[in-house]
């Protein structure tokens, strides 16, 4: 498989591609938002529809420059623009085609994080796109309402490419009563909040290596939809709706982010990263590890004070961001309160794990900067193939994930979501007790998860399981999963 040294890319990844603009953050929206304020609202990308009914989305991986620090130009990358990317909205049952052109100078991939799709189109390291080439995967949207995202996933370069800005959101809708009860008018009462704790040197060089290799001048500004809140101020959003739905994504390469209201009040969580919750949950805080998503709703009217959302960053490595930043000030002109959300949003059924098809131990460990799963550093396709996990369609499995180190990890499984059974021997509560695809693995912890493999098998292409601290992933904490027909 093609591969490029991670360190050879640092600081240079975005310099030799096709520049699409200087200090340009966002292309003109495909659909105008009716809300006002200073919050950057990513483009909602409209597809074309071919004669078979397939919805075709056109994405190009571009490079350019963006002013992240005040008065400093940084080399960045994005989808269809110089930094970050558009939002794609699809519906369960849609057939979609993603026409992806790699206009970077380096090999890359585009992975559909959280999507239940065949491994041949999953966008893992077997689906590489050479510089200048186009890849056009087609697949059916085979899951209910949820918040997914897309980003590169090539061997050894994921951290540099994600940190540079190759991040976009994919929102899945369905026709269930629960989904219909939630706000769905993009730019009016439905908004993405892509939040990053971004390592960047005072010279504007985006960092993406291990903690010991970070520049001494590295800082960790908090970005919301590409805007540095310390430079641009707290984003504002004024809506006419009485209820607003936010799709939260922690797009940091390593750091954890906890969302709260500045007044200590509650908001309503309606989905994890993998599915709508069975019922809305009122919470005062919500922590997301790198790669994890959630959906929340906030209700307010013109008579209410502005709701201010905060993000508290906790370092996900030996060096990382820290502190609390205001990331959004929300107001509404609505004169009447929104109707109550239904008591049921989705049907959640616990997996039967009384007689699993297999039980496995997934041991996360390291030797210095070499990261391993079950003692193997997955830095090459051959290393991962030699230690691959093999299962079959229809199998229900229980995995015990151990972390005996002092490092924090973010565990992500491709293909199917999973259910957390226990964390250090205790059953989870709230949203963590339902469907997930990305979870925090704390130092010195043991997490037990269960999943059922459905629909897709392949004897050539595999899925990945890995740490979504992308630095750890590049340093080897990734393994291959082969789902076979029998």
Summarize the structure.
The chain has helices at 6-9, 158-164, 177-180, 229-232, 381-386, 470-474, and strands spanning 19-22, 48-49, 55-66, 74-79, 87-91, 95-102, 111-113, 134-135, 138-140, 146-151, 168-173, 190-197, 222-224, 227-228, 236-239, 243-250, 256-261, 267-271, 276-283, 285-288, 293-299, 307-314, 323-332, 358-367, 370-373, 389-392, 396-403, 409-413, 418-423, 435-436, 438-441, 445-452, 463-467, 478-484.
Q: Cα distance, first to last residue?
A: 27 Å
Q: What name does the CATH topology of the largest domain carry? A: Immunoglobulin-like
List how many beta strands DSSP finds: 34
**SS strand fraction:** 35-45%
Q: Classify the helix fraction into a percent range.
A: under 10%
The tally of structural domains comes to 3
Helical/strand content category: mainly beta
Shape: globular
Number of helices: 6
Spell out the CATH superfamily of the largest domain. Answer: Cupredoxins -  blue copper proteins
Radius of gyration: 21 Å
CATH-derived architecture of the largest domain: Sandwich
* Overall pLDDT metric: 93
**The first-level CATH class name of the largest domain:** Mainly Beta
Poorly predicted regions: 1-32
Explain what you see:
The chain is mainly beta and 486 residues long. It folds into three domains: 6-175, Immunoglobulin-like (Sandwich); 190-332, Cupredoxins -  blue copper proteins (Immunoglobulin-like, Sandwich); 358-484, Immunoglobulin-like (Sandwich). Helix content is 6%, strand content 40%. The strands form six sheets. Strands 1, 2, 3, 4, 6, 8 and 9 form a seven-stranded mixed sheet that branches. Strand 2 (48-49) and strand 3 (55-66) form a beta hairpin. The longest helix has 7 residues, at 158-164.
